[in-house]
Amino acid sequence: MSDEIIIVGGGFAGLSAGVALAEAGKRVCLLEQKPHLGGRARSFADPTTGSIVDNGQHLFMGCYHATIKFLKTIGTLDRLHFQPRLNVPFLDRDGRLTRLDCPDLPSPLHLLMGVARSRSFTFKQKLEVVRLGDDVRRAGGEAAPTANESVTEWLSRRGQSEGLQRNFWDLLCIAAMNEDPRIASAQLFERVLRLALFSSPADSRLGIARVGLSDCYTAAASVFIEARGGQVHTGRNVKQLMIADGVCRGVDLGAGNVLEGASVISAAPWQQFATLMPGDLLRSEPFFAGALALRPAPIISINLWFDVPITDLEFVGLRGTNIQWLFDKSRILSASDHCIALVLSGAHEHVSRSKEELLAISLRELGEVLPSVRKAKLLHSLVIKERFATFSPSPEAELLRPNARTPIRGLFLAGDWTATGLPATIEGAVQSGYTAAKEVLG
Ligand SMILES: Cc1cc2nc3c(=O)[nH]c(=O)nc-3n(C[C@H](O)[C@H](O)[C@H](O)COP(=O)(O)OP(=O)(O)OC[C@H]3O[C@@H](n4cnc5c(N)ncnc54)[C@H](O)[C@@H]3O)c2cc1C
Description:
Blueprint: E1 5-8, H1 12-23, E2 28-31, E3 43-45, E4 52-54, E5 60-61, H2 65-74, E6 80-82, E7 87-92, E8 97-101, H3 109-116, H4 123-138, H5 151-157, H6 162-177, H7 186-196, H8 201-204, E9 206-209, H9 213-227, E10 231-233, E11 240-244, E12 247-254, E13 257-260, E14 263-266, H10 270-276, H11 279-284, H12 289-293, E15 296-306, E16 315-319, E17 325-328, H13 329-332, E18 339-344, H14 355-369, H15 372-375, E19 378-391, H16 395-400, E20 411-413, H17 426-441
Parallel strand pairs: 1-2, 1-14, 2-10, 7-16, 14-20
Antiparallel strand pairs: 3-4, 5-9, 6-9, 7-8, 11-12, 12-13, 15-18, 15-19, 16-17, 17-18
Helix pairs in contact: 1-9, 1-17, 2-17, 5-6, 5-7
The chain binds flavin-adenine dinucleotide (FAD).
């Protein structure tokens, strides 16, 4: 039998697993069904303008320790830019600009001081934030969220007013978890708050790629794997995992092509993993229940090209609008066009709207928060709907996420949907890749 480790899927999870195994001296064969690597975090050239566009703007954070290690290993960490400290501008519907600008103080003072001096909050709301911060840091007792509580239920129980929820916590929840706070798991949200906001000032910083997303990792990770004797193939669709007598011996590529390996890591998203498994096994083995029961949460990205710059902010959170974030892509990528990217996360109620409707909504809302837009000429637009952007992180979903080690010998799971303790993020995907690699090596 071959000593190769087969990896199915070339997103952050598959590539980080491949890099970790190659680094440990294993021969890796990574198979990606699409003609390109990158999965749900990728970039491409817009066919009309030639500008580099991401499938959706991605934010990194200082607390993405596994991701930072991965990018350092493949030599591309310098393609991300991290803020010196957490500094988030917000624009209200009436055009008022405020900031959460956290000073360089030890945690949690950095955040509390940032909130205390921000005009984003009333005095009462500032006290509410301090109280919740205290709950999160004490971690436990009746302040802690219960396993079946939603973010909204927990925040309300902990005395967070409706206004503060709407204008602050809900924005964070949707940005970090891609889900409506009435649906999202409070336990997961509390963990995100602890890691991202209440851990250290360095962990709270936001990071943005200064190049297209794919250029941050796909080619460099392939080169790393191939330089250590491995192979990375695109355009290779795995039809099924070869499982017999409780052992996975390889993958079936269809048309009589099979590939045998010492172990297989599936780094495909949950709904695609379900199609790789023999149906009877998938339904009879409770371990795999998540692959059938997790639900998706969509993200919509609206890219707009204007004839003139419309803002001097690199990015800004929008409050009171359907659109949640605006990124000045030309400023971020130092490009000469005037392209902005708008983000609509947790977009269940918008995903069935036509592209024309989404464009009309975004131009109307942009005109309200940024009057300069009304005078600018729209040259081109590109709406990207990612219907399966992430799994929906409800309290029920948390019980369904499987570990890397499966009941099938030789089969391991990676991917942002596995039991990482994090929402579906790049960091979750990379952590899952590292965990699966460790299990294979162990
Ligand atoms: C629009 C958008 C915005 C986002 N914003 C952020 C953000 O700001 N910050 C953040 O941290 N995260 C963000 N995320 C989430 C992040 O992109 C994902 O969590 C992460 O990329 C998932 O990586 P993965 O490797 O687990 O899965 P994927 O990237 O989906 O990779 C899986 C790969 O497996 C391949 N595959 C599937 N089936 C087969 C098969 N049968 N044979 C071969 N290959 C197969 C797929 O083609 C795919 O390339 C965002 C996601 C989207 C869509």
